[in-house]
Specification:
Blueprint: H1 2-25, H2 33-49, E1 73-75, E2 85-86, H3 89-102, E3 109-115, E4 118-125, E5 128-134, E6 140-142, H4 145-148, E7 166-174, H5 177-189, H6 198-206, H7 211-216, E8 220-228, H8 236-245, E9 255-257, H9 260-273, E10 281-288, H10 291-297, E11 307-311, E12 315-328, E13 333-345, E14 348-354, H11 358-364, E15 371-376, E16 383-387, E17 421-422, H12 430-441, H13 453-461, H14 476-479, H15 487-499, H16 505-511, H17 519-529, H18 532-537, H19 540-544, H20 551-561, H21 564-575, E18 598-602, H22 610-619, E19 623-625, E20 634-637, H23 643-652, E21 656-657, H24 659-665
The structure holds 2-(butylsulfanyl)adenosine.
Residues 81-83, 112, 114-115, 119, 172, 224-225, 285, 304, 307, 309 line the site of 2-(butylsulfanyl)adenosine.
């Protein structure tokens, strides 16, 4: 019986690994998502029923856990070196000459893309991923194994059987551009600081404490370097090919080159072709193919002598800084924006560049009228990277960050330790009022149809709406006469407002637009507290015990509730019927009646699924365990409970609960 189950589990793991590989690495799935999910579900169920077959490398483990990890520092078995950079054809030719002198025989180059992400070292033992460590200082890095396990293109178990018993493989973890853009959009909505580029977003994600959050960020990885005693091939190229067979994602844009001219042709091609790639690259890595020759060439203290990184030139232009504007966002954050003399850069006409914050302006020592360098790297928005001081007019005025809000005149504030300046007048500053309303009605928040930013502008300028609660007082007579409105559109808006009463608490909480409370944090808060009243009553200490809630978020929540206008707003919204409590579908901790109690679920049930019952156990403070032991307090027994379990329960004298008994116990009828 157990052998059968064990075989089924093994088979499913193998199949799912195979499908993951086909999907994420080859991009050639052979089954539908639905079929894949069904297999995954079956495996999850079997593993849950048979915890004795637990394996951290099972494909079910990719979803990540909620556990808080403390990153352990791990010494690299082989130091993680950097590469010598070259910026010109001349430097590349010099490198070629040096190699030619050292090696008396002929040699080949391998050219690869230089991925711009976070480097990672993966250790595999007997074909299983055992450790993933960041570069750190090159000698020691952070053990981020739990987070890396969630990256779908990194194999947890290898395919085939000709891999060395123990080896390391290094590569780059990257965040594809579309994922990066979506992430920044969400952060913008939450009023959180944006990531400057995908590389920063990748390292930030790898260092998150919650691997389930990491899983949601959809990182990818390209592997490019094998290290170990018994590597299969005599060349780097062969080893990469093998690595691909074992299931690693190895870039397909790799070329064997017989001469430096072929290398230059590869570089020339990718200098522009790289803009078509879904991930950021910042150069070409050139490596000597033969491992023997690599060994002959050896290393300097910092980098191998058998490799070179040719860095792409960041597209740069020189122009004049005309003025600086200050934009006020919905959270009151003030963003400085440089107005430039228009200039052509990487195929687009650039006339504005973000300056991010006061510190950046200061570190650039910007003066009005300065000749500045603008660059477009992996980033989407161009940035000013420096000024040409030699061209500065002697009377040029330094750019001074404003002290009052450009929209409402309120003195700006800057919280210690934060880069941004804020306008604190959140209930009276027009862009903040409009921004908050726009956020409130947006699709992921209250999803009010028929209302867009133009209508909001109109409603605000006519004095009809000054805050989100005012929306619920709108009457058809007020809407219909507005420009480009009609009876139909007005009716649609009013109906949509009416149905927004059913929007669940977590989204209402997100819609309020509390700084740093984005979609995910709102969900976490809603399920941890269950209601706005409970959330409002928590102290900073209590708030920070909630997963992913740090000092910054906790302070922002306290700050929000300390404002009587916000409390009044909530009461008005509540009186309009909006949800300020999680309904029974939400995962709020509803009681502690099962605290310290272990329950095994067995059999099938009428009212709830096994998963739901598991949730209910946890919601009331209990623990759902997979197998019966002396420590089990109850067995939640459904129909068709397995005879061996029944026998074991009898032997250990563990009481059986029916579904009804259990529901009565937790006060749920
Ligand atoms: S080989 C000992 N290949 O660039 C040499 N590195 O500046 C090992 N990188 O730390 C590195 N793409 O993070 C290699 N195709 C590639 C690469 C690559 C990106 C990164 C890597 C390394 C850094 C060196």
């Amino acid at each position: 019986m157990n052998i059968e189950i064990s075989n089924r589990i093994k088979r499913l793991r193998k199949e799912l690994n195979e499908h993951n590989y086909r999907y994420y690495v080859l991009s050639e799935p052979s089954i539908s998502d639905f079929e894949f999910d069904m297999k995954m579900r079956e495996l999850e169920q079997l593993e849950q029923q048979h915890p004795e077959f637990f394996d951290p490398n099972s494909p079910t483990q990719r979803v990540g856990s909620d556990r808080n990890l403390e990153f352990e520092q791990v010494a690299h078995r082989y130091p993680m070196l950097s590469l010598t950079n070259a910026y010109s054809e001349g430097e590349l030719r010099d490198f070629d000459q040096r190699v030619r002198r050292e090696l008396e025989t002929g040699f080949e180059y391998v050219c690869e893309l230089k991925f711009d992400g976070a480097s990672i070292s993966l250790t595999y033992e007997k074909g299983s991923l055992v450790r993933a460590v960041t570069r750190g200082d090159g000698e020691r890095g952070d053990d981020v194994t739990a987070n890396v396990r969630t990256i779908a293109s990194i194999p947890l178990m290898l395919r085939g059987n000709d891999y060395p018993p123990q080896f390391e493989i290094r590569g780059e973890i990257v965040m594809p551009f579309p994922v990066f853009e979506e992430l920044n959009l969400q952060r913008e909505e939450a009023g959180e600081p944006l990531f400057a580029n995908p590389r920063n977003a990748t390292s930030g994600t790898l260092k998150m404490q919650n691997s389930a959050m990491v899983a949601s960020r959809k990182l990818d990885a390209y592997l490019y370097f094998l290290l170990g005693e018994n590597l299969p091939g005599a060349t780097h190229y062969e080893n990469l090919k093998k690595a691909r067979e074992w299931g690693f994602k190895v870039s397909e844009h790799i070329a064997l080159c017989q001469s430096v001219d072929e290398v230059l042709a590869f570089i020339a091609r990718w200098e522009t072709a790289r803009f078509q790639l879904p991930v950021a690259t910042d150069g070409i890595v050139i490596k000597i193919n033969s491992l023997k020759q690599q060994e002959l060439l050896g290393f300097t203290a910092k980098s191998p002598k058998w490799a070179l990184a040719y860095k792409f030139k960041a597209e740069e232009a020189t122009t004049t800084l005309l003025s600086v504007d200050y934009q006020v966002g919905r959270t009151g954050a003030v963003t400085p924006v440089a107005n430039l003399e228009p200039v052509q850069l990487a195929g687009t006409r650039v006339k504005r560049a973000s300056l991010h914050n006061a510190d950046i302006i200061r570190s650039l020592d910007l003066h009005l009228g300065d000749t500045v360098f603008v660059e477009k790297g992996g980033e989407i928005i161009p940035k000013i990277t420096g000024t040409d001081v030699s061209k500065r007019h002697p009377m040029a005025q330094p750019v001074q960050f404003i002290t009052t809000c450009p929209e409402c005149g309120t003195p700006l504030v800057r919280t210690e330790g934060e880069a941004a300046h804020y306008c604190p007048n959140d209930t009276g500053c027009p862009p903040q009022i409009k921004g908050k309303i726009e956020h409130f009605i947006s699709r992921k928040a209250m999803n009010i149809e028929g209302l867009g930013s133009e209508t909001v502008e109109l409603l605000f300028s006519k004095g009809l709406v000054n805050n989100v609660a005012d929306l619920y007082d709108l009457k058809a007579e007020q809407l219909v006469p507005l420009e480009r409105m009609g009876e139909k559109s007005a009716a649609r808006i009013l109906e949509s407002l009416e149905t927004s009463q059913t929007v669940p608490f977590s989204r209402v909480l997100f819609a309020l637009g509390i700084r740093y409370v984005g979609e995910t944090v709102a969900k976490t808060l809603a399920s941890a507290t269950g209601s706005i009243d409970r959330l409002k009553s928590l102290s900073k200490e209590e708030l920070t015990t909630i997963n992913e809630v740090g000092d910054r978020i906790a302070e922002s929540i306290l700050d929000y509730f300390s404002n009587p206008r916000h409390l009044e707003l909530i009461e008005r919204l509540r009186s309009k019927g909006l949800q300020f409590e999680s309904d029974s579908q939400d995962n709020s901790l509803r009681s502690n009646v099962l605290e310290g109690i272990s329950i095994v679920i067995s059999g099938t049930f009428n009212r709830y699924s096994r998963d739901e019952l598991k949730q209910l156990i946890e919601l009331h403070g209990g623990k759902n365990v997979g197998s019966i032991s002396k420590k089990t307090n109850y067995i939640l027994a459904g129909e068709n409970m397995g005879p061996s379990k029944l026998e074991k329960a009898r032997q250990l004298n563990i009481p059986l609960l029916s579904e009804e008994d259990f529901l009565a116990m937790i006060g749920n009828n």
